[in-house]
Amino acid sequence: MEFVQILGGLLNPTGGYLHVKKPRSFVFQNPDHQKQRVAIAGDLADACKVLLLDELTSFLDENDQVGVIRAVKSCLASSIGTTALWVTCRLEELEYADGAVYMEDGRVVLQADDNST
Questions:
Q1: Three-state SS sequence of 9-71
Q2: 26 - beta bridge partners?
Q3: What's the CA gap between 101 and 14, in Å, rounded?
Q4: CA separation (Å) from 52 to 38, 40, 69, 87, 116?
């Protein structure tokens, strides 16, 4: 969670260097997936370049999880130059990712792109 907060500008890093294109937006988990969709759509309408998505599907059942993931993919497909960083503990969501990074204790342990996932 701290990593995403640093990326979103909510926390300052204690070391190293980080650059994230602006404008950037942060969408937190919410048990009402309709509110999540509205938040994501609003961020994209504001010409967001980096969309930080933190555990969006954590409160949702399987059908709603897939619905939120598809909504994000659809929004991104129609938004030129926007990157989404999706933080999740659900490995099954990797099916929808263009790439993935696995981190432990703030360090990258494994990285894969869409050609190797």
A1: CCCCCCCCCCCCCCCEEEECCCCCHHHHHHHHHHHHHCCCCEEEEECCCCCCCHHHHHHHHHH
A2: 52
A3: 21
A4: 15, 10, 13, 8, 23
Reported as a single tens digit per residue, the pLDDT across 37-64 is: 677 667 665 667 788 888 878 877 888 8
Distance, in Å, from the CA atom of 102 to the CA atom of 87, rounded to the nearest integer, reads 10
Domain residue spans of the chain: 2-113
- 60 in Cβ contact with 33 (< 8 Å): yes
pLDDT tens, position by position, 76-100: 887 777 888 888 888 888 888 888 9
Per-residue pLDDT at 109 = 92
Structure tokens given for 9: 């500008």
DSSP 103: E
CA distance 8 to 22: 10
2-113 is classed in which CATH architecture?
A: 3-Layer(aba) Sandwich (3.40)
